[in-house]
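[09:14] KT: can someone run the structure on this one? pasting the chain below
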Amino acid sequence: MSRRGWMLFAAMSVIWGIPYLLIKVADEGVSVPVLVFARTSVAALLLLPLALRRQEIRVLLPYWRWLVVFALVEIVAPWLLLSNAERHLSSSTTGLLVATVPIIGVVLARLTGDAERLTLIRLTGLLIGLGGVAMLAGHLTGGGAWPVVEVLLVATGYAIGPLIASRKLSGLPGLGLTAVCLGFSAVVIAPAAALTWPHALPPARVIASLAGLAVICTALAFVLFFKLIAEVGPARATVITYVNPAVAVALGVAVLGEPLTPVILLSFVLILSGSVLATRSGHRAAAGRETAAVPDVTAGAPPGEPARHP
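[09:31] RB: done, structure tokens below
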């Protein structure tokens, strides 16, 4: 890759590893609906003028039904569940659990007609990754099982989104799709946000986290991600999927003082190794083509973003 490509790759790897930390901080001062509304509305206001200037909105109108479905499974539901789960889970743990998106994506693609053969290597990857999830879930204390289930539902949504994108929204302009879906999501969440709006101004760190989520981790992230795809190609761009969780863990430990136990480290290795193996045999290239057609709007991942960012 060129130096520009490496710079964009490094920037995206960090940017889509940051949201877990910012969500954890923002959860301290605002409700979940307010958090998600702030992120989606501000990002939409920043991206919509750019999409309009590029004339990427009108072409989306015939696909409005699938755009609604895509926004619900990639933004609305995952971001609400993710923000609520982080009230009980550490940001680093959440980032690791979201890293199961490629594993879930392989299973869903297979169940919905993916013609690619499930080889022994890919099956081994699935089992290794799921073993890492089970180890991590068994290590958690407090909050019960529901927060873990919430994050796994988030990962499932992030995995469903690209399937919809590749099969129903292929070829549509990514920036316009992102802006419209974010705007629609903001409208959907607005009533709940209004009912739970804070009575007093949140602390400065909470406001800064909300601004970072909207401006850096959503609006700027997608502008840079489109440039990354153009510079290095969609297949290489999706490799950030495997870097984002490491950034999330590092930030959680360094900034928030979250524990880094041997079990967490081993779970990290298992989940990421399982994801890499499960997406072998050309699956990553296919995922890259899907991402090129319709970039994911949720870290996922990163996501996703690739649907791998939160």
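[09:33] KT: thanks! Residues 3-293 form one domain.
[09:34] RB: yep, looked fine to me
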